[in-house]
Amino acid sequence: MTLTGGSIVAAALSQGTGKYFWANDPATDEQLQPAFFEASEVQINDAVEAAENDFDRYRRLPFAQRADFLTAIAEQLRIIEGDVIVRAQRETALSLPRLQGELTRTVNQLLMFAAYVRDGSFLHCNIDPALPERQPPRPDLRMTQVPLGPVVVFGASNFPFAFSVAGGDTAAALAAGCPVIFKGHPAHPGTCELAGRAIARAVELCGVPQGVFSMLQGERHELGAELIKHRLVRAVAFTGSRIAGRALFDLAASRPEPIPVFAEMGSVNPVFLLPAALAAWKTELACQYAESVTLGVGQFCTNPGMLFAVAGPDLQAFTAAVQTRLEQLGGGVMLHAGIKRNYQTAFDILSERPGVEILSGPGEQAGCRVSPALLKTTAESFLSDPGIAEEVFGPSAIVVACRSMEQMSACAGALQGQLTATVHASDTEEDIARQLFSILERKAGRLLLNGFPTGVEVCSAMIHGGPYPATTDSRTTSVGTEALQRFLRPICLQNFSSGLLPGELQ
Amino acid sequence: MTLTGGSIVAAALSQGTGKYFWANDPATDEQLQPAFFEASEVQINDAVEAAENDFDRYRRLPFAQRADFLTAIAEQLRIIEGDVIVRAQRETALSLPRLQGELTRTVNQLLMFAAYVRDGSFLHCNIDPALPERQPPRPDLRMTQVPLGPVVVFGASNFPFAFSVAGGDTAAALAAGCPVIFKGHPAHPGTCELAGRAIARAVELCGVPQGVFSMLQGERHELGAELIKHRLVRAVAFTGSRIAGRALFDLAASRPEPIPVFAEMGSVNPVFLLPAALAAWKTELACQYAESVTLGVGQFCTNPGMLFAVAGPDLQAFTAAVQTRLEQLGGGVMLHAGIKRNYQTAFDILSERPGVEILSGPGEQAGCRVSPALLKTTAESFLSDPGIAEEVFGPSAIVVACRSMEQMSACAGALQGQLTATVHASDTEEDIARQLFSILERKAGRLLLNGFPTGVEVCSAMIHGGPYPATTDSRTTSVGTEALQRFLRPICLQNFSSGLLPGELQ
User: Fold this and answer.
1) In 3-state terms, chain A is what percent helix, strand and coil (to 5)?
2) Do residues B501 and B418 both lie within one domain?
3) pTM for this one?
4) Which chain A residues are closer than 8 Å to B446 by Cβ?
5) CB nearest B491 (choices: A447, A495, A497)
6) Active site residue A193
7) Is the same domain home to B82 and B208?
8) pLDDT at A174 (0 to 100)
């Protein structure tokens, strides 16, 4: 499939003019063809206006047709699977099995939303029938939900499929009935174009209004800002760094008419090993932990970058085993030069904090290649410097030695918002685990017992979210069926005749 | 009951020192005793810290005990009913039947939340059981919700019970499991003290942790800002003016750790009369409309301050009948001098806009007394100056004459966010009504057919909310059972042993 280097405006290729940029192969530092054109102001405006103009027609389609459209996107992704995976591999240096798995996950996610939308139950209707005899009489009141309007989606470099053009946020917004303007990720523009064209073909095949989907290429920061400030945009979904997420949140909050920003900004995903669990399972926990930390070269928002345990011989043995296993696992190629640079900088800042000791560093390697890093510190150091819990995005972990369970609880209490928090406990430690979870419940969106947080299941009970700074809205999830609720708002219909009620309220 | 003039910190009277202020009787301009002390920084901090310290104990109480607590508050309000209504009448000049009705509504609201909380269904749990045979295996995943933490509530002057100390926001937050710090309303501080003491007694009787409730008196703007900026505060609920609501929203969004602000800021609640409905029912519609506009001296956020109809003899007759009925109904005493001043200023600004004509003005009367006002304009004028739809809080209405149904639709499309929007249609006008509602659905939280928006039913299907500037979060309601969802966030428990699962997930 030949790439055009253009954007997609209202489900049609739109070549663009003016400035352009290229993708790089992070494994070879080779510039990849073709050049991609920066979306222009005209393209931005055309995309948003088309979204607004076609919003009403799209949201009024029968739910079955909306579901068919999501299914068609999934099918179109399968059709281009071979080509898009080859291009994604060049642009991200992620492994073939990893990309195959991610594409399957992305396809299944679209199918999950299709099934959820088809029956209408996602609207969570409430009905309070009229009480004409009551004094004063109660009118008939029926609650349903309506979509918000055009949604701008920003993808993440670490998931070129599942959190990109046809990823979870796009699927959730389309499922909710909102048109999507996707801001292409400059680290994988070719992957974006192929996935965008797949969606455009699904638009055509299903006959849904074309304004429902646009994808704008660009590496200028202003592109995102212009989209968020556009008066017709109604909500924003974002996955990426805290700095970028907060900047978008601030822009949206300062609009004359503020709009919600659902930004997922990552975290250190603390893991707590209780003493008996550590004693009994230290060798296998060390292996599993090292594997979780290095999975995908550590480039997961759910990467468990911080581990707490009570100091002693067991923790020493565990830490040594983690180090050994990390060395065996080795490093890998990060997604792009910027991510590698940030990994090294964040590691350097962390390693220079008082009380932090390096066990192994990220190495000095050519191109985007890095090694896993392991550090250690004490609970005292963390408690006096919470900056030790700042995320190092990449295959890096810090082990925090606590003097006692009380101190471990104090550390849990000192954490900021997290996507996940994990406790490993033996059968005899249920009471301590309960106490710890009672603290962690206020810190994280997902709590795990005896597992590792990488690997986010896409299902109805999943919460991929958490208190700030993990996200900008702790009351939502960006993965799972409930992710579509972000793009809906409730309305109440009072005293409507049955002819005027929408199908779900009949 | 003797008023102390103090605040309530952690369910105990806290006298205060330093600056003080008085309430006024708006009907007589008499200063009411006693003096009320401005809450100090120490009291603010004590209240928030007590809320945080007791949060965990409170949220872990069995739901039945939380429900008993809400019921006890309702009972305590009934016990002081006589005293609190007398004081509220002096402080607000609202009529006795109105205040009695509002107290009953407030009591019923508490009982509604008690019933909703008792069975645990409000948590909207999802369960995805483990699939150990699947490749890769799926762990057990269970979703429930947890309360956010300490909530600051700002009440409204126009509802001294239902949107004040023991009103809907307090009830919803307490029902969700969140401690409440109520910022006392300076226009009815005595009513606040009495209601606050009723809650404090319920705290004592039920043995719930004392930090769960505080009420801080004050007329300084800084009091609200200090509360919102307090690092331990987790959410804000507000009912009042757009300027104040937006200021609180901006403060909360600019915190290092942003928190949600659920501000309900009112609207003009447009009413659309379709031609056949106008022709058939003009006389009764005029009476009902005038009564809705003047109810409670027009001091309702759901006051229908703007009406659209197609120009012609029917509209002329309707408008004349409204004017006559408004004159019959006469004016009343507004809640306080500031509200009267704002009413007159907003009326003056509106009446001086191009194309706006005064039919009757608010009059020049002593004290807080005002007359109802009626204005008219054309759709052309509104479409070229959307400022004509700015709310005039009080018994004021503007009739907008449209040249055609198309122009009426254009006016609907030009409206900003509203709490409600109403269409009056005859049986033969269902298609036009459907078209109009399809536009209004994007504008308002509640849509009414053949009714008037004043009178907000407290039930499970109610939405008292809407797009900005009606509220700062269109995805929520501040009235009805779903109002408690604002104070919850979802969490996912992965691979939890049954001993660790909370009751609702067992």
Assistant:
1) 45, 20, 35
2) no
3) 0.97
4) 491-494
5) A447
6) no
7) yes
8) 98
